[in-house]
Every structure is written in C-alpha cells, then in structure tokens.
C-alpha cells in the first residue's frame, strides 16, 4: 500500500488525497510493525516501525490543519504516543525527550485552540484531553523513574560488555542433563499506583529490555558516553542497519507482556506457550505483584467419609505446598496429625485455612484475581524459570510435575533505600533492578541516584562487578556440585546473567544445599546484601 501511494502520489493528490491521510497510512504501518515485534520479538520489526514513525515526524504529515480539526489533532496525539513507545523500547532517549516536549506542547495548544476549560460543560473533547493530560503525566513519571543513571549501561545483552554466547564456559555433561535455551517469556506486574506508560509498567519494561540483544553494540558506538537532551544519555543519528542484531546471534526470546491480566487470560497464555515450547526450550515467568492471603473453608458433611474427604483435600493442598498464612487462627494441617481425628473433626464442622497468593487485581474480589502456586503446577511439566517480585514471594513454591522449576524469589520485606525520595513507587521494584542493573541497584541502597556519582569510581565498580560475575560463571560451570536445575540453564546468556546477578547478593554459593525445587530467596538484611 505504501509503495502504491508512492508510485501514484500525484494522481492520488489530484483525486483528493490529503497529506494527513498519507501520514495516517504510515502511522498504521508503523503500528503493524510494532505489533509484529511484540508478537515475535524480532528487532527488525521494531526498527521498521521507527523508520515509518520518524518519517511522519520529520515530514510533518499531521501538522497542516491539526488545530482546525479536533479529530486530526487526536490522530497526531496518538501518533506521538505510539512513537514514544517505540523509542522507549529501542532506548532512543534523546528522541523520547524530544517527543515528550512535543506531546506536552500539542496537548496545551489543543486545549487553548478548542477552548476547553473548567468553565465549559463537560464534552467529549474535554474528556479526551483530560486523558491526554494523564498520558503526559505517565510518561513524565516514567522518565523520572527510569533516569539516565539507570541507563548508563544498556539493560539489553551487549556483546561490547557481556561475554559472547560462544565463549561462555561449558558445563560438564554429567552435571547438566540438558542444555536448555530461553525461548519464551511471560512478563506481568500489578501494583497499586505503579509507574507505567500506556500498558507497559516499569518492571516489565526492564525485564523486556533485559531479554533482548543490544543491536550490534550501537549503544556505545553512538552514545559515546555523552549527555543528551535533559541530561539523558543521547545518541547521534545512526544507520538503521545498526539496529539489527548480529545475524550470527540467536533470535531474541519471544515475550508476552501481559498488562493486569485476568487469571484465565494468564493461564491461557501459559498453556499456549508451553504447548509450542521446543524440547530444548525453557519458559521464563516473571510476576511482580503484592501478596495476599485468601481464606478457604471446607465443610465436613459426614462423620466418616467427610473426614476422609477433608484429609484427601488437605493432603492434596499440602502436596502442592500452598502454605498457611502465619497469622491465620486455624492453620492448614492434616487431621491425621491429630491423635484422634474423629474427635477433632465432627459432622458439620469446617476446616478453615489461609493460602498465600499474588494479587493481580483489587483485593475486594477475593481469589478471582489471585495467582496461587497450584495455578503454575500444571505447567511444570515443561522447564520453567520463575521470577517472583512480591512481599509474598514464598507463596509461590510447590510440587513440580515432571520438571523441577528454577525459582528466584524477592525478599518478603522492603529494603531500606538510601535516597529519601526513592521507593518502589518512584524507582520500581528493587529486586527487579538488581536482576537487570545490579550496580545501579546497589547505588540506590547507598543513596546514590546518579547526579552525585563519580564516573571514574562507577566505571571501576562496573569493572569489578563484571570480573566477579565472569569468575562466578566459570566456577559454577566447572563445579561438580551445582544442582542440575541450574546447570542446565548456565549455557543460556540471558538466564545466566539473572542467576549470576542474584548470586552476587547471596551469602552462600548455589552448589551448597538449596531446596529441592532449586529456589533462591534473598535474606532481608542489608548486611548480607552488601556482602
């Protein structure tokens, strides 16, 4: 379609084709490319989306008549918001700041032009521009949290800074029964008042970035450590061919980013991905949400069979390790543990217990929006790498079905952050920052947020961290005591980086006795984190 209008532009213009209509065609094509990138994670689609959007911006397709036609102004605003999202994912921060300024000015100008103010009756236009004000607030808040300091080093896997996959230490065959590769990832978060832009939250954005190849090392080739607009690390114009990752590298793992999904949607996505997962593939599940407990009651309808039924149900829950909450007045324990089960449970009695879960919706809806350990268990028939960012992370553990799952769990309490204005609501979840940018996370603990950092000291610390991670990786790969759950994923560069980042925060190595499910759990003391 684009080629057709290029070849027949003069005839189409003579027939009445408007310039903004050409821009709308280009915008829709760009959105198609971005949607295809979200489905496949192929960087070439993202680069194509950028090319079309940039052409619309530089040729000003929407400028003419935008302040005379309300619908045309809305089209231009939608274009800017979509281009912003593409630039965020591509890490084009200089362009991001340019687009934010344009978006602010356009919203303000439209409000003045169409005479929308508090004195006028509420209209469709008034409602629309209030929503656009909210969009501006979201992106400003997002950039305030995801600062230039957080992006000193690219979150994506860079061959300039990270080891090439071909040179990663080889794990001995007896230790690693399989050699798994990350093929798919499901990323989702739900927190009250969390930092987000559109349907991309800050936590899922960082995980999304961390599961991509840095295009040909262009971040450092173009940025050169220079400060761009608004203090962000900028990049000079580069050839779009540089945005394509090295063809010798494996493709990016596919990623499904779920924004506040319903439980049925979440499970349906997991089921579809597991069905298509190749034999050598592993699925990463990242969940960031607040914890909660749900009260359940089991009614005993009979003196004999009812007790046996309750025993079976209770044993079934216990086998899935749905833990009782410590504050529960009636903990979930098997009646068989009682010296006299028939005496402890009579006809008409109820067994009351609480189960830990992750809240992916309003607390008032009970268990409808909760993710329980038993929800994930059917999918452990395939290799899973699960990351839980929650104050109830320990709730997600259980009995696997066929494959032992690897778990990385955040602490159950908040770490003190040195900066007075830094919190989960302002900078994102700390455990996720440690996984994606460990040195920046450590600086946040010390109260260093970027403006007061000495770059020579930072570079020295970065060099020490990189060296220690490489040493850890070599030690684990050559050790005979590494659990096979971890050994089989050490060959994957993305999962290896997550594993080593957490390892630097632990007070003991993973070859010592960890739980049978291959679980990591941070202790909640600053001293051990510093260690």
Description:
Helix 15 (430-436) crosses helix 16 (438-445). The termini are far apart. Mean pLDDT is 76; it is low at 219-238, 296-310, 312-344, 350-354 and 506-531. The chain has 531 residues and is of the alpha/beta class. The protein contains 20 helices and ten strands. It folds into two domains: 1-145, no CATH class; 151-219 and 244-292 and 355-414 and 424-501, Rossmann fold (3-Layer(aba) Sandwich), CATH 3.40.50. The strands form two sheets. Strands 1, 4, 5, 6, 7, 8, 9 and 10 form an eight-stranded mixed β-sheet that branches. A hairpin with a 2-residue loop joins strand 2 (196-197) and strand 3 (200-201). It is globular.
Supply the key terms.
531 residues; alpha/beta; Rossmann fold; 2 domains; eight-stranded mixed sheet; two-stranded antiparallel ribbon; 20 helices; 43% helix; disordered C terminus
Concise overview:
The protein has 531 residues and is of the alpha/beta class.
Topology of this structure?
Blueprint: H1 2-7, H2 9-14, H3 19-40, H4 43-59, H5 70-90, H6 93-113, H7 124-145, E1 181-190, E2 196-197, E3 200-201, H8 202-210, H9 218-223, E4 254-259, H10 263-276, E5 281-299, H11 305-319, H12 341-344, E6 350-359, E7 370-371, H13 373-376, E8 384-389, E9 406-409, H14 424-427, H15 430-436, H16 438-445, H17 455-478, H18 484-487, H19 493-503, E10 519-521, H20 526-530
Parallel strand pairs: 1-4, 1-5, 5-8, 8-9, 9-10
Antiparallel strand pairs: 2-3, 5-6, 6-7
CATH architecture descriptor of the largest domain: 3-Layer(aba) Sandwich
Total domains, how many? 2
Regarding CATH, which class of the largest domain? Alpha Beta
Would you tell me the overall average pLDDT? Answer: 76
- Give the number of helices: 20
The helix-and-strand class reads alpha/beta
N- to C-terminal distance? 59 Å
- Which bin fits the share of residues in helices? 40-55%
CATH topology of the largest domain: Rossmann fold
- Major sheet: size, sense and barrel closure? 8 strands, mixed
The number of strands is 10
H/E element sequence: HHHHHHHEEEHHEHEHHEEHEEHHHHHHEH
Q: In what range is the share of β-strand residues?
A: 5-15%
Organism: Gossypium trilobum
InterPro entries: SCAI
Region (Disordered): 321-347
Biased composition (Low complexity): 327-344
